[in-house]
Here is the input.
Amino acid sequence: MKKFTVGIDVSKDKLDFCILQNQDHSVLKRGVIDNHKKAISRWLNKLDPDQHAVAMEHTGHYGAMLAWLLSEKQMCFYMINPLELKNSMGIQRGKTDEVDAYRIAVYAITHNHRLKAYDLPTETLRKIKALVTARERFVKIVVQLKNSSKGNEILNKTIDVKELIQEEKKQIRSITKSIKGIERQIMSLISSSKELKESFKKITRVIGVGPITAAKCIAETDNFLKFSNARKFSCYCGLAPFPYQSGSSVRGKSKTHFLRNKPLKSTLFKAASSAIQHDPQLKAYYHRKLKEGKHKLSSLNAVANKIVLRIFAVVKRDEPFVKLAA
Here is the structure.
């Protein structure tokens, strides 16, 4: 364990920091630095990597520069889930960036025994994740435009909105072209790395797993280094069911948790829908669940969970996928 812990509250324009001594939680220094490369680099040069550990909330783009510079300087740092941090604080009154920096540092010191130092994914993986996210946004826009266009075609029977329909169709063609360009970039990045290419080849052989599903799984798992087993990844996706019981009176149904990666779960549901059409074994499994009285979505969730198990099996065990009869 390091001698000092630096808690950082990240915002768009600035970083509030608080340096605590691990032994007694005493405050050694507080301050604010600009959230840009030069200012962060100058500040980090004053910290000793052997004595200081850094803790920050996982805030996405706003903390990307700080995380990258910390990784470049090979400093130990932790990325803390904001919800986990909030739930650990109990009842709190008031909130400022300065206080948040202190609370982050205290949390890191208190829970140091179970915190794991963050390993920044490779540049290629970060690019793939950004491209996959952008593709999802564009696909949603295309769906909205198509639905709007269908509505306007009905409306066009009573009022003239032909120009609007033409403009929407033009936008659909343009964004669809952009989506295809993004997909080519994703495939190019995967092909440029031997490890990613090998993982991609293995998991796309799993029935139901297409190129985009494979790319998203690779990006979200840091090429299957972020999660040690399929169960943990299923929990992250929101596919793993949990029992709800208490004493002798509460006997709820097992169900998935509301905290989940919704876009990833949606992607895996699409993979499951495809799998039950083309895989006799999963099709039989799906219909067996329905006969047991399970809801269609619950049965589809079970199939998606099976697909996750297969993906991790072919990657972790280094065995090719073999299609079995029903």
